[in-house]
Amino acid sequence: MNQGILVSILSIFLYLSSLLGGGQGQPIESLDPPLGQQSYAVLGRSGVVAVDRITLRRSPSLEAQALGTVTREAKVTVLDHIENWYKIRPRTGVEGWVPDYAVIVQESVETGGDQIVLGFFPGGLLAYESLLENGAKLTGLSALGWELDRYGKLSASFDHEEMGRTLYLAGNREMDTYAHIRLAVEPSYLLELEHLQQDTLAQILDLVDEWGLKGVLLDLAYLPGREQNALFGFLNNLADNLRQEGKKSMAALPWDASIDYGAAGEAVDYLVLKTSPDPLPGQPGSGASTAEVEAMLQEITASVAPETLILGLSTGGIHWPRSGLPRSLSHQEVLELAAQEGARVKWDTASKLPFFTYNGGEVWFENRYSLQYKMDLAEEFRLGGLALFNLGQEDDQIWARL
Q1: Taking the model in full, what pTM does it have?
Q2: Which of 22, 178, 198, 401 could be a cystine partner for 217, CB 3.0 to 4.6 Å?
């Protein structure tokens, strides 16, 4: 477990406790309501049932309601620990509490190959559940929640307790954790003034240290123009400062022929390539087709080392309704909308993407089959890895393919 994360979490909880006027939290009124998190040291660790059969209970008590049973050698995920009890989640069935003698918690974490599999964590229950269920397939986590303005001022917009819990889970799974910093506008003043750059670098380095992170991912949510040289120079300075602390740097860039990817690749350790354009009102259609992604990779790998490139994969879909603005949908929401409208999902052979239409509405999305084509391209071009955008929105069958 990363010691920096431990210190950060303890600091956060002490701070929250002081705000609430006490260090012990709220008393438990009964055994039936769910307990708040008691221990982060075991959160997300793998375990194996060590007895022939044991009953899962609603609360850590032999008198608590029985929810089901698990049997010897069943693999489980450990969610919590209090006194002599573990809260576990079996591969199938319901989660519940069992005496701690019934489970052997594995200290080491199984890791995959050398390829990076990065998850973008937007926060929320769906993302957390996906991380909990599928985190063993991830090598890194980019936690969204920070933003830079045009002056280089860093702001945060997330629940600190949720962020702490998420990073603790990722640390227990031995993932590399990154601060995901969004840059939505050209940082014109930042790039013009040296003292603002130094202040921004200090803010970012403090952030990485405070949260015990392994690095930073700067997500360019706008299309850089004439300021590219200055921007990539700033990124290079940031990367140098991070390397001095043993940390990594990443930058996520949109696809556009005007971007100097060679200069961007020299500035940071890894480039994350965003393959899906932003949806336009009144212009429904497919996202990035497999052919377009292949052409993009052919061009970029001519100037950037493939092993430093991470292919970004959208995981949900875009819904253009009869009227109004397009909006993002999770894979589950896509299927629910199709069923609600009685729409038949079709396959577009040109783009290799599924879609459906209904009474003036149109939806294009990604699923296990469309994403497989893009994952095959990452392997063909020998890229450094993959990045799954918006954990919790994906077709859950893609995890078996990673």
Answers
A1: 0.84
A2: 178
